[in-house]
Amino acid sequence: MIDLIGGALLAALLAALLTPIAIRVAHATGLLDRPGGWKRQARATPQLGGVAVLVACTISATLLGGGDSRLIAILAGAILLCAVGIVDDFRALRPPPRLLAEACAGGLLWASDLGWNLTVPWWVNLLLTVLWVIGIVNSFNLIDLMDGLATSVAAVALGTVGALALANHDPAMAALAFALAGAALGFLPYNTSSPARIFLGDGGSMSIGFACAALILAVLRSQPEGVSTVIVAPLLFGVPLLDMGFRIALRLSTGVTLITAGPDSLANRLGELVTTPRAIAGVAAATQLIVGGIAIAALGMTPIRAALTVATVLAVGLCAAARLQLGSRRAVLHEPETHRYEPDLHRSGADAAFIEARSSV
Description:
- The structure is a single chain.
- Helix 1 (2-29) packs antiparallel against helix 2 (49-65), helix 2 (49-65) runs antiparallel to helix 7 and helix 5 crosses helix 8.
- The protein has one domain.
- Helix content is 71%, strand content 1%.
- It has a two-stranded antiparallel sheet with strand order 1-2.
- It has helices spanning 2-29, 49-65, 69-91, 95-111, 122-143, 149-167, 171-192, 201-220, 227-232, 238-254, 266-270, 277-298, 303-334, 352-359; strands at 32-33, 45-46.
- The protein contains 14 helices and two strands, in the order H-E-E-H-H-H-H-H-H-H-H-H-H-H-H-H.
- The chain is an all-alpha fold.
- The longest helix has 32 residues, at 303-334.
């Protein structure tokens, strides 16, 4: 346990030291997120934060986890998606290449014996693994829209997964989870300064999202195979997945394309009640902590009790999302368009298609 705490602290220190270097490199190479559209930051901001986090995590986890083959496979997939994300930050890739890279990373997990291992044909497990990776990666990418939000939620989720790995006597996966959580926390002060000095970028959100997806699968493989594991798994990354589900449902109901960015996250709705990015990140992280704790508790339940527990959590989440959305629609109906709540903390890129689609419904 002391080694794991030391590894997390080492990763946090390395991330804190590497992030200023990433800032300078981003400025030198022009890898900056520039204001425009829904990007409301006051100035062009570096996007290489994810590289600092990943390098810090890799060094710490390798020192603690040794040559565990699972560690190598997860880090290889994370590096692959980090590279794709950096290219996307430079050139704004269309969805197909990104999805293809995510599918390949999911295939790598399955080939490394880290995918779903249910009592079904092999190709079903492969498909489930690929879909799981795509879902987790994109849910995390979507929630990376406010300073500190994605990083805080990831740190909490990784801490929960690390605790579960420790309980399952899996030191290598615990080392990786705690190292990545520590690196995220080391990066956090740079991301939550006012204004933010650096963003994760797609290279960070894709690689960290993949690592979370892989770690959840790796740790759950230590659990007895059963329905409970499948039911509970999404709760270990519950906040990003709920947010993505909310966005999909909202856009399908309003006719807005799913591939266009825009300020329709639950975090944006929460921003009408909580007016600082740090407070929003804190609420999201606390929610993830509660949901993650429930997930761990549910793993020890019978399948029926676990299903009822997950259904209850989902019902509460949907009610909260509906309440936030209802409040947002009332605000829109009663306020002029120019006064709609748009704080200077949303930085997800959006094009005119989103504005036109929203104005037509």
